[in-house]
Design a protein that fits this description.
DNA-binding, 12 helices, four-stranded parallel beta sheet, homodimer, alpha/beta, six-stranded parallel beta sheet, about 40% helix, elongated
DNA sequence: GGTGTTTCTAAAAACATTTTCATATTATGC
DNA sequence: GCATAATATGAAAATGTTTTTAGAAACACC
């Protein structure tokens, strides 16, 4: 009942030629006569021959698979990135092996090892929030395995390409916009500080205040750990009980911002009149919540494509055994400030 | 500079034993003396030996990789399913190769072939909207490759396990709830009709109307193709211009429902007083939109875990070369009606 | 001391492919 | 007609494992 999987040897036997000939015929090698090529092709089609990638991988020392390590899939931004990765990888003839680090360093290490064991041709990684040590990545680089980090990049790791988002500028634009709108007591909910992304957003917030001669108030800065809606809700509640209440909240993520909005609305505060709220990431929910949430759009899909293109370029360079070492890149993608009702007091063009 | 990847033979040479001994020592085979086992283990640890999964796969005819084909990753429900898949697969020692069919039958076929070529041990698939022909899956089953379909399952394919969601009941509950709330002119926006899921939701809608002695009005039934917010917006616009306007809209998906809400609000209609709106899937946005959207929660994460457990059971059964053929399962998961403000006229317990 | 058993290790085959090297046949040039 | 070149194919090695089979050494039993 169970059909056997056809091998080169099967085809060879059937045609009375050697497996070597079949192999070459199937890739249209000019050494093989046209007639033979045709015969082989026809039989292969007829029997639905599919090359065994595992055997190819072993022989060629190249699996045509790239490994992807993502902190968390159920996340609009990351799933967009994955989508970009898959699109580029697919058209370049690569398969994708996916791992989810769950924001845990230990899991991330295991994933790196598993991918290495699977002999992927390269790794795309966005670091877990917990990750503050890069030995696992160093080791892979020592083996010559190409690595590209994106979004939560690994600046400490030498000799690798990175694709980042200009989070500093994105966050700076938010604060500038709030100031232009007349808000002065601007609070910030930042994320876990290992990732460079949260660091940059926090730094931009502080710099923008300073650049506009606003004093920094440490009571207006809170850090969340899980980056959830609840945390936004809790922090906003705290601020409401405090005097003076902030007149704007800039949260590290839309979800957190929306948590804050819920608390503010419950307390009877008017957004954006009494207090503004701004998020980050432009999740689908941001445009749909009421009032629509001002946020910073990040080009996730493009980021995935770009990171993958860099990785595959490096892989190809490596396999071409050129003399010159591969030149690594650091790409920075621009964000887009999406001004919506939640932060607009003055009449302004709403996008 | 580039470190060589360590092989069994390297260890064997270094220790002056054969590769066979090293292989057995590493898996604690009792044939090997304790001292030898220890020596081998120590050297392996010291040199960071990692078995080459590709070579193992070739030799053992088992890759420890499962293939997953999903129509679209950037989708709250599907990313939840993937998350469940990855969690179960990880703890069972399997890697995941991911493909995105983009709702295209052609791409789905390519993906199936690519996964077969990669010699995955099994395939998890949710069909593309376009898919109305199952030859590509039949072929894989003929090769004895285990397949489990989930959500948009493939009822035409024999001898395979399925995990579905009770969409019929979920949709029936929606319509019943609307009727209980006093709505009578209930419209429905259904999805593409190839997937069994949309079919079931439509059928439940029709049956529920009939069971409650409401007449079916074909003007109140529209089908969307892309399942986008725009489509919901456009359909709602059309209904607004029509007399009598429906007093409830049940959309195949939250996104479509929200599109409809936007159109209704623009037209000055009050939700839920003038008209109710209900979605499906319980995206994050549903609880956040105003008024909060009544919807049907689907257990995506559980579905992923369950489907993966069935697949891996079947794989294990196959490799245990038992006499009795594997007994396939069809599992049906229950939905949960999330009653929110968008559909509640009468006082009711809001979840 | 020969036979049989136990304990440990090695050799070799197998997995499906690619590629180097070799070889046989035919064609070309003088 | 002979040397050389071109053409087409095959044999064999190689990729890194696992596993079957075999075999050597040590030991027990009569």
């Amino acid at each position: 009942m169970k059909a056997k999987q056809i091998t080169l040897a099967d085809l060879a036997k059937e045609l009375g030629v050697s497996p070597a000939t079949v192999s070459r015929a199937l890739k249209n090698h000019p050494d093989i006569s046209i007639q033979t090529r045709k015969k082989v092709q026809e039989l292969a089609d007829k029997l639905h021959y599919r090359p065994n990638s595992i055997a190819q991988g072993l022989r060629k020392q190249e699996s045509k698979v790239i490994g992807v390590i993502i902190p968390e899939i159920v996340h609009h931004f990351f799933s967009s990135v994955i989508s970009g990765i898959m699109e580029y990888a697919y058209q370049a003839g690569y398969r994708v092996m996916l791992c989810q680090s769950m924001e845990s360093l230990a899991k991330e290490k295991e994933d790196v090892e598993a991918l290495f064991s699977s002999r992927v041709d390269g790794i795309l990684i966005s670091l877990a929030n917990e990750t503050n040590n890069y030995a696992h990545l160093e080791e892979m680089r020592n083996y010559g395995l190409p690595i590209v980090s994106f979004d939560k990049v690994c600046q400490k790791l030498e000799n690798h390409s990175m694709v980042m988002i200009d989070d500093y500028e994105g966050a700076y634009n938010v604060v500038t916009h709030l100031i232009e709108q007349g808000y002065r007591r601007i609070a910030h909910i930042h994320g876990p500080l290992n990732p460079i992304t949260s660091q940059n957003r926090l730094k931009a917030y502080l710099d923008a205040l300073k650049d506009h001669d606003l004093s920094q108030n440490d009571d207006y800065i809170m850090g969340c750990k899980q980056v959830t809606q609840e945390e936004g809700y809790i922090f906003a509640k705290k601020w409401i009980q405090q005097q003076p209440i902030p007149d704007a909240i800039f949260a590290v993520t839309d979800l957190v911002a929306i948590g804050a909005m819920v608390a503010l609305k419950e307390a009877g505060l008017k957004i954006p009149d009494d207090i503004a709220v701004v998020g980050y990431s432009d999740w689908a929910m941001a445009s749909v919540v009421e009032p629509a949430l001002t946020t910073v759009a990040q080009p996730g899909f493009e980021m995935g494509k770009l990171a993958t293109s860099l990785l595959i370029d490096e892989i190809k360079h490596l396999h071409s055994d050129q003399e010159i070492p591969y030149q690594h890149h650091t790409e920075v993608l621009k964000t887009q400030l999406k001004i919506r009702k939640s932060s607009v007091r003055k009449p302004i063009l709403v996008s």
